[in-house]
Amino acid sequence: MQTPSVQRVCVLGSTGSIGVSTLDVLARHPQQYSVFALTARERVAELAQQCRQFTPRYAVVLDEGRAEKLRGLLAEAELPTEVLSGVEGLCQVAADSQVDVVMAAIVGAAGLRPTLAAVEAGKKVLLANKESLVMAGPVFMSALAESDAQLLPIDSEHNAIFQCLPFPCEDLNAAGVERILLTGSGGPFRSRPVSELGAVTPDEACAHPNWSMGRKISVDSATMMNKGLEFIEACYLFHAQPAEIQVVVHPQSIIHSMVQYRDGSLLAQMGNPDMRTPIAHALAFPERIDSGVPALDLIAQGRLDFEAPDEARFPCLRLAREAVEAGGSAPTCLNAANEIAVEAFLRGELAFTEIPTIIDEVMKSTEVVELTGLEAVELADRNARDLAQQVLARIQAGSPQ
Ligand code: NAD
Ligand code: MG
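That is the input. Now the predicted structure with magnesium ion docked in place:
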């Protein structure tokens, strides 16, 4: 048997929750993977520590001031790692000819350019950064079709769906698929009285019952916008119509999603809620490697529950479905407005229940346009952010907090 060559990995967003889990998996397989580049926005000391552990060829931070600081830390440690900065630095390492695999784990729209750079350079791209696909769906998917890149979903639900589908699967109908069942835990406020939701704090919203994640996605899980973004993500990834996807609330997060076939079969992928499983799956696909996640003990687990989502409690789910049905720039607009609203909520400047209010207003006052290319995506994103800031300012002026 041929000795497999070492795969060189670029981890975009290495200091985040997904980034750290990715490095945990990579560290278990030093013969198979080496770290080529690590990137972060601001946690320079942590990035320097990761550089000490993995000695990447490059480390990238967003601004030049922090890059200088990192250069100092790396020089002290006598490391050869070269430090780059800016979006250009991110795109450069994502597309470097020496890179085999790119983990796209930057949070939010900021991940779009580097993720697209990896796609255009024909990399194996592990997609955690769902916002980049949601905001740029048609542009992203055509870049993928025109390149030699392979896109593997990291989002646990999409990774589960991928595992339950035949491979490759270009056409759900031809594969005998009737429906995709997208599961979600319902987040920390699934059964909190609706009347109390206006007063919940960022820390309460970030205390997810099953998953430990970054703060933005944690708030998205609490509003169920995360499931909304995932709904849109699934439409693009699996060439699915919105009517072919059903959201099912499953509070234990043991089943990560399911695929229902024409013959009555329902395939589910299960496991402990730990992102190292989808990360290891996508990294090694089609092989299987150890992820460090303990086997699921179904007897200890005891039961699995399911219920329908409550769209009155979680209007974000409806807003996301409407956005994907409207198509064009509507998901771009939804994502941008959501990012502005969530940031304001995390700063303590907006009530939790006003997150969907902002998104709804921005969606209603924005004309849907066709996404002809990256410029059109970025323009729609900017316009929606400006509008969301205006709505936010109006809400803040009307209701001092
Ligand atoms: P996080 O906030 O923990 O980490 C984000 C990373 O991106 C950090 O390394 C940060 O430095 C970097 N970053 C942030 N803003 C940046 C910018 N403007 N430019 C460059 N880098 C920037 O987030 P996370 O929870 O790891 O999530 C990352 C992505 O993965 C998100 O898109 C999220 O939706 C998705 N995801 C996360 C999980 C999870 O369990 N955490 C599960 C599924 C999908
Ligand atoms: Mg998910």
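Residues 7-153 form a domain with the Rossmann fold fold (CATH 3.40.50.720).
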